[in-house]
Design goal:
17 helices, 412 residues, 4% strand
């Protein structure tokens, strides 16, 4: 029964204060989709508190989590006979993304031969584009998890769904803009000097003087803070209003927001990550994403391949390799991580395992080394994963996916 409150669009519903429908289940959601944010803070602590060699941390991370999460996409597409037959045109056509890197290199080489001053721009734009796409992909996955919580708790198509989308995108993308605008590495790439330290603000009476001392790029950073604070305040106010007016609050979604938003906001504004390379920032914000993704794909695997006695005959290698989690992860590391990053070691790409010829010193395109071709390979894997993910995770248009993800809303 609904009871009016006098507030437009707001009404009291039922006696329950919270909806608590989870994606994987309460325990698994709290550990893998929400609590795994602790892994990101752990990497941050390795950098700031323990002072570990972040190249080693990065290498262990890409071997054990990041590359396996790419492989997880392949295990449920190319190695699944049913998916392969259903998506064959997509799975073949998307392989063309591996040509983008070689085309960028070829354009840069042709520009150099033509005597153009800025001949490296095609290659630099390719690397910048892949990096920005990577952060957008992470943002999109968090958006996808949020949407699953909407679907599980009856918020699809509601005002809250629209508000949540604005809050999540704003609190992940706007701080990232501030991070890029403050980090020396990105500023150097576009020819800007290091950003000036913000002037001291001792009290309200100093606000006019403080504002007058800000440079344009500092104004941009300050504007991002205003936007983020406003979005967080709006979200919290909305949840408080729902509680006060007797509406049901989506608790899993709120807990997810409480994990993901502070992580990205803090990592984008903390001074600690301005004093290191982008590699550390990448590992911190991506490791949470990796764990989430592996957990979701494994949940999908159990539901899809564990329900049928003849699953291995019907689905093929995908069902064989997912009989046990350790087998699945072992295959991902052995046939995904080891070949790719073993090649990186042999090519002298990774400073902690340099065994091959000094390709990191030999140049062929200005100051660009031959390692660029290994970057093309790994970037191709990234982009291919990003594109496939846009098509294979659409529960709204796939009844089979909703079944495999247990997404049908339970009776209230």
């Amino acid at each position: 029964m609904s009871v009016g409150t006098g507030i437009p669009g707001v009404h009291r519903v039922g006696p329950r204060a919270f909806n608590t429908n989870w994606i994987l289940g309460p325990r698994d959601d709290l550990i893998w989709l929400i609590g795994s944010v602790a892994a990101a803070y752990s990497v941050f602590a390795m950098h700031t508190v323990l002072g570990w060699n972040m190249l080693i941390v990065w290498f262990v991370w890409v071997m054990t989590l990041d590359t396996p999460h790419f492989f997880a996409t392949y295990s449920r597409t190319y190695f699944d006979k049913v998916e392969w037959q259903a998506r064959k045109p997509l799975l073949i056509a998307t392989l063309g993304v591996f040509l983008i890197g070689p085309i960028a290199i070829a354009l840069a080489f042709a520009s150099m031969k033509a005597g153009m001053e800025f001949f490296l721009w095609p290659w630099l734009l390719f690397k910048i584009g892949v990096s920005l796409w990577a952060y957008w992909h992470i943002t999109r996955q968090h958006y996808g998890v949020m949407r699953l919580y909407h679907r599980k708790n009856g918020e699809t198509g509601t005002f809250d769904a629209k508000l949540d989308s604005a809050v999540l995108y704003g609190c992940l993308l706007v701080p990232f803009l501030a991070f890029l605008g403050r980090h020396d590495h990105t500023r150097q790439r576009v020819g800007l000097p290091s950003i000036e330290p913000f002037p001291q603000l001792t009290g309200l009476s100093d606000v006019p003087s403080f504002a007058g001392q800000l440079h344009w790029d500092q104004w941009v950073v300050a504007a991002t803070v205003v936007v983020v604070v406003s979005l967080v305040a709006i979200f919290i106010t909305r949840q408080a209003m729902k509680i006060l007016t007797g509406q049901t609050v989506n608790l899993p979604k709120c807990m997810f927001f409480a994990a993901v938003l502070p992580l990205h906001i803090y990592m984008c504004y903390t001074e600690h990550l301005l004093m290191t390379g982008l590699l550390t920032f990448t590992a911190i914000v991506t490791i949470y994403h990796d764990i989430q993704y592996l957990a979701i794909v494994w949940f999908y695997n159990r539901n899809r391949y564990g329900r049928e006695e003849n699953a291995e005959r019907r689905f093929g290698l995908a069902a064989k390799m997912t009989r046990k989690f350790w087998i699945w992860m072992g295959v991902a590391i052995l046939f995904g991580s080891v070949p790719v990053w073993g090649l990186g070691c042999l090519l002298n790409r990774i400073p902690i395992c340099q065994y091959g010829p000094p390709l990191g010193e030999s140049t062929f395109l200005g100051e660009t080394t031959w390692i660029a071709f290994f970057v093309i390979l790994t970037s191709g894997l990234q982009m291919h994963h990003y594109i496939l993910d846009q098509y294979i995770w659409k529960p709204g248009s796939s009844k089979q996916l909703r079944k495999d993800m247990n997404l049908e809303r339970p009776a209230q």
